[in-house]
Structures are given as C-alpha cells and as structure tokens.
C-alpha cells in the first residue's frame, strides 16, 4: 500500500510488540471502536491504516516523554470488511506492525453523520485523570462534536458534500507538548481520543482541535500530582 510504503521506506517492519484491538464483527461501520498500543519505552508514533477505505490512512498518534505509554483508543470508519494495520515507529527507527481482520455488515464511509446544530458542533469534553503520583500514568478522555464530513458523501441534490474534518489534535501540559494526533477521513464523527499522560508535577492540561478550515477549539483541565 503506497501510504505504508511512504512511511516505512525500505525498512522491514517486525511483528510483535503492537496490540491492535477491534471487534471481529462490526454491525455499524461508521463507528468502530479501536484500541492500539505498543509495548516498551521509546515509541515515537503509532500509525493506523484501513487499506479498503477510500482514504486508507486513518490516524497518526505522536508521543512524548509526557506520554510514555503508547496506548490510544478511538473510533473509526470502515468501508467494508478488511484487515486493519497498525505500525509503530520507535525512536531508533525500528518499526513494529500488527494486523486485525474486521468483518463489516454496513459500510461506514458514506453514512450520514447526522445534524450538528446549536451547541453540539465543536462542543468539547475532557476528563483528566485523578490525583497521580509523580511519573504515574493516567488516562485522558476527550471528545468533540463534529461530523467529520469526508467529502465523499452525496447530498440531497446528488452533489458531494464538502469535506470538513478535524485534522489535528494536540495536548500540552503547562506549555510542554504531551501528545498529538493527525486525523483523516476514516476517523468517526464526534472524534473520541483516549490517551495516557505521566506528569511529573501538577499543571494545566491544554487541548486543541484544529479543523481543516483553520478553526481551532480549545479546552483544558487541571492535573494533580501528589
């Protein structure tokens, strides 16, 4: 697949060390729960691909010393039954790969995301971990109201509806980068991301979601250590 070839180049990804969890059968391909994790220290990024989707690249998750546990949960769209692929990139350049077959009953890439009116569009929700010991890892849960319109779905007049995506999510703690994600057409509506942070001290967690129009939504939460 060109997208994976562009990522790995001539390197040969090795199996093992990456866990990719999806349901064996999904009744609704428009919102399929996905959990991906890579073992050990030094994981720089996790990339997820759905080769049978119109846009195979699903998401890329980027880790820092403040997110040393490379584990993410989200929801994705699957166009048809296929094998989903996750590639982990380590700091030394090594690559690890995992695959998981998913059977899809109803295609999810052309399904309507519904109506977004009033305060539902761009409504951000955040749940930070409770008090942590210094260096302890805790889960951050985030979601934002957004249709993630793919640009591939026809409207009432038959013309394709314009693409409208949240394309970048970033998290920082007192100004220090903690975690980031690049999101593509295959991320489900109302993007949900669960990731882990290991703060060294109490601070303010700042989150931002950037739409492809350039519009940015921000939110925050306090993180307590001690």
Summarize the structure.
3% of the residues lie in helices and 46% in strands. It is mainly beta and 226 residues long.
User: What's the total count of β strands?
Assistant: 16
- CATH topology descriptor: Immunoglobulin-like
CATH level 1 name = Mainly Beta
Mean pLDDT across residues = 91
CATH architectural grouping: Sandwich
| Main β-sheet description | 10 strands, mixed
Proportion of helical residues: under 10%
> Helix/strand/pairing class, anyone?
mainly beta
Principal-axes shape call: globular
| Weakly predicted, low-confidence segments | none
The total of helices stands at: 1
CATH superfamily: SoxY domain
How many domains would you count in the coordinates? 1
Alpha-carbon distance between the two ends? 47 Å
- Rg from C-alpha positions? 18 Å
Order of helices and strands: HEEEEEEEEEEEEEEEE
Q: Strand portion, in percent? A: over 45%
Itemize the secondary structure elements and their pairings.
Layout (H helix, E strand, L loop, with lengths): L1 H7 L5 E2 L2 E4 L3 E2 L5 E7 L4 E7 L7 E7 L6 E7 L5 E9 L4 E10 L19 E4 L10 E7 L21 E8 L2 E8 L8 E6 L5 E9 L4 E8 L3
Parallel strand pairs: 1-9, 3-9
Antiparallel strand pairs: 2-4, 4-7, 5-6, 5-8, 6-13, 7-14, 8-9, 10-11, 11-14, 12-13, 12-15, 15-16
Notes on the protein architecture:
The structure is a single chain. By secondary structure, the chain is mainly β. It has one domain (2-223): SoxY domain (Immunoglobulin-like, Sandwich). It contains one helix and 16 strands. The chain has one helix at 2-8; strands at 14-15, 18-21, 25-26, 32-38, 43-49, 57-63, 70-76, 82-90, 95-104, 124-127, 138-144, 166-173, 176-183, 192-197, 203-211, 216-223. β12 (166-173) and β13 form a beta hairpin.
């Amino acid at each position: 697949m060109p997208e994976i070839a562009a990522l790995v180049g001539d390197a040969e990804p090795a199996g093992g060390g990456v866990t990719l969890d999806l349901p064996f059968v999904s009744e609704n391909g428009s919102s399929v729960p996905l959990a991906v994790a890579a073992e050990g220290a030094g994981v720089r990024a996790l990339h997820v691909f759905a080769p049978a989707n119109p846009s195979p690249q699903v998401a890329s998750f980027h880790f820092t010393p403040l997110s040393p546990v490379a584990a993410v949960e989200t929801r994705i769209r699957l166009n048809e039954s296929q094998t989903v692929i996750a590639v982990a990139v380590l700091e030394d350049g090594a690559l690890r790969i995992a695959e998981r077959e998913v059977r899809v009953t109803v295609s999810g890439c052309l399904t309507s995301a519904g109506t977004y009116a009033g305060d539902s569009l761009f409504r951000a929700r955040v749940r930070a971990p409770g008090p942590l010991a210094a260096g302890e890892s805790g889960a951050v849960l985030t979601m934002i109201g957004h249709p993630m319109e793919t640009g591939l779905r026809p409207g009432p007049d038959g013309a394709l509806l314009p693409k409208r995506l949240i394309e970048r999510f970033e998290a920082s703690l007192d100004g220090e980068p903690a975690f980031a994600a690049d999101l593509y057409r295959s991320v489900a509506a109302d993007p949900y991301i669960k990731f882990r942070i290991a703060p060294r001290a109490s601070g303010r967690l700042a989150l931002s979601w950037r739409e492809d129009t350039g519009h940015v939504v921000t939110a925050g939460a306090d993180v307590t250590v001690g």
